[in-house]
Queue: 2 jobs
Job 1
Amino acid sequence: MQINEGLHLMNSDIPVSTESQLVIIWSITAVATGSVLTGVKYGIRRISEVCFCFGLALMLCVLFLDNTVYLLNLYVQSMGYYFQWLLQIGFHSDAFEQLGPSAGAEDRGRFVPEGFVTTDGPSGWMNSWTIFYWGWWIAWCPFVGMFIAKISVGRTIKEFIAGTMAAPVIYVFMWMIIFGGAGLRMEREAAQNNLCCHNIDMGRVFNLSMVGPSNLISLDDGLCATKDCNPCAASLLARNIGDGMTYEDLKREAQMLGKPEWWGKTTVSRNLTRLSCRKTEEMWFDVMMSYGDLGSFLSGFSLISLVLYFVTSSDSGSLVIDCLASNGHPEPPRLQRLLWALIEGLTASALLVAGGKQALTALQAMSIATGLIYTILMCIACLSLWRAMQVEVGDLDPSGPSFDVDILDPFFHRPF
């Protein structure tokens, strides 16, 4: 869906539709199928290396094209906050938020910002973010764990930890802080330049410009999509009325942006955009377009990178399923690889056609629910790994004491 949005932003002739998304799915499936057929050493490895290089290039471009000093300071500050709050937030469980809204903040000397009635945090934050991503990442553990194990054959424990835990964590810190920092800077500066989320009906404005192009803008003409204009719309219209703008002037100003609904939310040069007014799928491209003449190139480069990242996820997933379906065989048959790669594409297509985004959300919810089961299995696997390492270095006798009853014996043995 994000690829479809990006293609539409770059070329308005490409619609945001199920048909376009199906074409994207099968294009990715075709490339992923070719990759998985060549195996880990060739297709999967080379595409993964290209993805890493593309992602690193994008990150460095944003670092040096944006406010570099600000981003470097933000990196140091954010890392400090992270380690400062890691222990406390790690044990936070939203206990007080579950009791409902609190009161008496002012009596206790707490500062309550304007427009707020309490200092409480959002009640649904933990469910929507902490627990969601906890379950989401754990649900990926079986697939990711098997794939990493497959590509890490011959590595030492030290190399494995450095390559799969230390380096990726540092890289993700850099990625989140640089791109997140660039987005936050843009949001703040856009707000300072009076860009905001209005509810003005630009279609109504265009109609009025055709009926009376020289008529001055008036709040009495019902310009907002709802009965009342929100504060943002009221302030924008008041400023235009004060400048003596006509409906034709407003129409021309909106047409310069490419899409009339962008008026009041982004600048003509696209260097600033109020990201909070945009769809999630559009925010990335808004940030890329803010870098002047390189904006279109970076947006296109981002789309290529995004496609390749989807390809690496698909081909590695197909390979893991192939290994499971062939009883752990290191080199599954090519016909079986082709079959599972096509099944992945068919599954994604069926979900998209049957329910669109709602079906994908339901699938995500199911995946998160399985995270609880895998959490228990992960704890057992950690203990098993620790005991296996003790046996390997000679600290534990493999023939030592063990359970007298196997875990499944109560189900398959007679009681007497």
Job 2
Amino acid sequence: EYLEMVIQYGFVTIFVAAFPLAPLLALVNNLLEMRLDSFKFVAQLRRPIGFKSKDIGIWSDILAAVGKIAVVCNAYIIAFSSDFLPMMLFAMDFREKNAKRKNMLSGT
């Protein structure tokens, strides 16, 4: 079950900038899956035997790595698919040319 949830978390977080409806669709999927799993446990299967565990183990490290990858990936998606970088480069070039022009006119 952890593998399925981590894969879904990865897709949602990594590509949220490209497909903003992904978190909403993941929520609907999880609600539906939760209802179906609860019906399966109540009506069709025996009660599972519980056992203690300290934490979720290696999965927390995997989730942290996916989170870091998602930040970098979303930054690249936003930077290269929007007009942000061209506008910033144009503004920097314009400021540089404007400063040179002022220096030439003032004689410094």
